[in-house]
Write a structure and sequence with these properties.
The complex is a heterodimer. By secondary structure, chain A is of the alpha+beta class. Chain A contains five helices and eleven strands; from the N terminus they run H-H-H-H-E-E-E-E-E-E-E-E-E-E-E-H. Helices cover 69% and strands 0% of the residues of chain B. The chains are: A alpha+beta, B mainly alpha.
């Protein structure tokens, strides 16, 4: 594998270690981690920071009944739903994506969005982010675009380049709304990416939540 | 954020004892060992839950139980070369909490977090990690004690209260960029991401 040169920034890894970021972003980081031992190691250290913080809290002992209850239950607890992670999928697909991609990239019902690009929407996340796979044909390009919100990309297969550089499998890229770029896939093969695009705005508060479905409709 | 400095010796002894308990749970299904682990960790798991949801005592109990069930079931997968016992419990608690929040509809997402945050069972440590584990722990512990208050505050929001950068920025009335740079600075001070 090529050496990975583009990694999530420190504060994103921290949020991942804390599990305090939207799951769509966590999915991108997790995909990167499966390819990047360096970040996986950093993450283990950040987990250690989280654990130190946790042990600095004032302990809050449970009632003695809680332990007795649990000890009584222990023998009847089976591993079902605990020890197995589901769906052993295609090993060429990152395992955190197996929940969406059961077989391989070939069997996906890709949707054509331009001459060069196909997409497949995996899901929407709580922050109204769109989570999708993009497939650019060899040498293909997407027209120059800016994003409405932040965009996170992890390369799953192949390579692409833009004004800022050349990216390979495992590379993690974050582009903010102000960033303008023109990605071009390299000529040797298809480039497949996981892409998370955040919605242009996210309103909170009571009235904001009422308005969000309207915004969502225009964003789709 | 203050905690009496533990004596190094007793801390090492405690660590060894807890590791031994996990071992006995894994290999002998030893309930007495499990009970020791419960006494040590349940109060901390509850504290972790309560800091996110103050007053939610039942939720805290449920999280403590859930994490300890996983300890019972997964003790055999614990790898002391990858994480000290505290860190293993922290990752279990973190994963249980996010799973719990999702199952109870506290946030709506079609993404299954259990497929994202694993319990560190299929990883392998680098030789560097294996030899420097205890020094790292010491660095982090002493680093946290020296952290400027405003950086420690943000780490608490993110790690313990489970707040995103946006939420932290809104609650502390700070620009998003400031939140991010404080996290960055804190991590830099703790020297956790420094390459050897």
């Amino acid at each position: 594998m090529d050496t990975i040169k583009n990694h999530p920034v420190a504060e994103l890894l921290v949020s991942y270690s804390a599990a305090s970021l939207p799951l769509s972003q966590a999915l991108c980081i997790s995909t990167h981690l499966e390819n990047c031992d360096e970040c996986a190691q950093k993450l283990r250290r950040l987990n250690q920071v989280g654990s130190e913080l946790m042990y600095q809290l004032k302990p809050s002992p449970p009632s003695s009944a809680l332990k007795a209850q649990l000890l009584d239950r222990l023998d009847s607890i089976t591993g079902n739903g605990y020890t197995e992670r589901h769906s052993p999928g295609n090993p060429s697909v990152p395992s955190c994506l197996h929940q969406f991609i059961k077989t391989g990239y070939e069997d996906i019902s890709w949707k054509r969005i331009s001459r060069d690009i196909q997409s497949y929407e995996l899901c929407r996340d709580q922050n109204n982010a769109k989570v999708e796979l993009l497939r650019i044909r060899p040498g293909g390009t997407s027209s120059t675009h800016t994003h409405m919100g932040d965009e996170y990309t992890v390369i799953l297969e192949g390579s692409f380049s833009d004004e800022d550089g050349l990216y390979h499998k495992g590379d993690f890229l974050m582009r903010d709304a102000s960033h303008q770029h023109t990605p071009v896939a390299t000529r040797d093969k298809y480039c497949i990416c996981l892409a998370v695009t955040e919605a242009p705005i996210q309103l909170t508060g009571f009235f904001g939540r009422l308005l969000n479905p309207l915004i969502r409709r225009s964003y789709a | 954020m203050t905690r009496p400095m533990r004596q190094n010796n007793s801390s090492t002894e405690l660590t060894a004892k807890l590791r031994d308990c996990i071992d006995r749970v894994a290999n002998q299904r030893d309930k007495a060992a499990f009970s020791t682990l419960f006494d040590h960790y349940a109060p901390m798991i509850r504290a972790y839950s309560l800091v996110r949801e103050p007053g939610a005592d039942l939720v805290a109990d449920e999280l403590a139980q859930e994490v300890m069930i996983r300890v019972w079931l997964k003790a055999g997968t614990y790898n002391s070369q990858l994480a000290n016992t505290n860190t293993w419990i922290f990752t279990l608690a973190r994963n249980c909490r996010i799973d719990y929040l999702r199952r109870n509809g506290r946030f709506v997402s079609e993404i299954d977090p259990t497929e994202i945050f694993n319990d560190m069972e299929d990883e392998s440590p680098s030789p560097f990690e294996m030899t420097h584990q205890s020094r790292l722990e010491e660095n982090i512990r002493s680093g946290l004690e020296k952290l400027p208050r405003e950086q420690a505050e943000i780490l608490t929001k993110v790690y313990l209260e489970g707040k995103s950068h946006q939420q932290t920025s809104a609650e502390l009335k700070l620009p998003l960029g400031t939140v991010k740079s404080r996290v960055r600075l804190a991590v830099k001070k703790l020297k956790v991401l420094v390459e050897r």
